[in-house]
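Ligand-bound model needed. N-carbamoyl-L-aspartate.
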Amino acid sequence: MKRTALMTEVGRNWDEFHSTDVSRKLPFFSREGRLYDCLFSQQFDRALLNHLFAVADRLRSVTQAKAGADAVARLLAHKRAMLYFVQPSTRTFLSFLNACHILGLKTSEIRDTSTSSEMKGESPEDTVRTFSSYVDLIIMRHPTPGFVEKTAWFMNRVKRPVPVINGGSGKDQHPTQALLDVYTLHRSLPGGPEGKTLVMVGDLKRGRTVRSLSYLMKNYPGVKLVFVSPPQLRMEADILDFLKRHGIPYRETDDFASVMPEADAIYMTRIQDEHDVAGESKSLDLSRFHFRAEHLKVIKPTTIIMHPLPRRHEIAPAVDEDERAVFWRQERNGMWARAALISYIFGVDDQIRMA
Ligand code: NCD
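Prediction:
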């Protein structure tokens, strides 16, 4: 459906729009055949993923020399970005900030609503609308599921629209984390994710990274997913339905040790106890869902160990020295993947080339 038709049909009423199936909403968040707002990982198809990874690879090499880095830093020197991160963040914030700086974008930030006019009673909607008066891009992380999408929805309707990138929305989605995760799978697994077994471990119920990553797997035929969690923290039904609809094989278990030998990639996650109502995760024995140094002998010589970070006890620090532990590289991949995405949104991706 065309963007304009969707705007007239359901685009006038937020609640109606919000409850519309994601596949029908996607045109609303694109312009001239190009992704404009980045909100859901369902927006990435295989061609776009391949393109963004090629741009990210190019950015890495071009910026190694000063002349290349200077040229790239001129590409968006006339643009400004707002980073509105009102939920804790270290690497998503820093990698976006540095991605902006690589491309020359100037940045402003709010990291705590207690320092914004929300403290004076301004609505979050008015606060984010204010950003569009000053900047050309909004990158945001917000605790309320759907609020990033709502921001993009009304930003598309104001006189001076600006693109919105989702840096993590509640328990919902974290599409650019999925982007950098798949970029890491491409860089670290020969032949990329296709045909591989990906084991996701931990809090699958409340972790937005594993949700967004699962959606992306529809682009990789032959991928098999294994979900490892305590019964209380299993993957939600909406994701399992999506996998069934797209014929992506998956199975669920609480026996991590038994699936380690078959994994090509192990994706560890943190227990998201900030969502506990009464400390319910504290009563769980989570040690069975930890990756310890002795497990390095059990996995294949080619298996990679990933983590969106931050970690607590899920991966023993002794594991870091092993070549198969790729999470620190994964973290750095995030900066390049996000810079590639921003360059694509502004249509300067094709100007990133070797001098
Ligand atoms: C993740 C997040 O915020 O969802 N962190 C990140 O962005 N790298 C994972 C987490 O907090 O556990």
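The chain has two domains: 3-173+333-343, 175-272+284-331.
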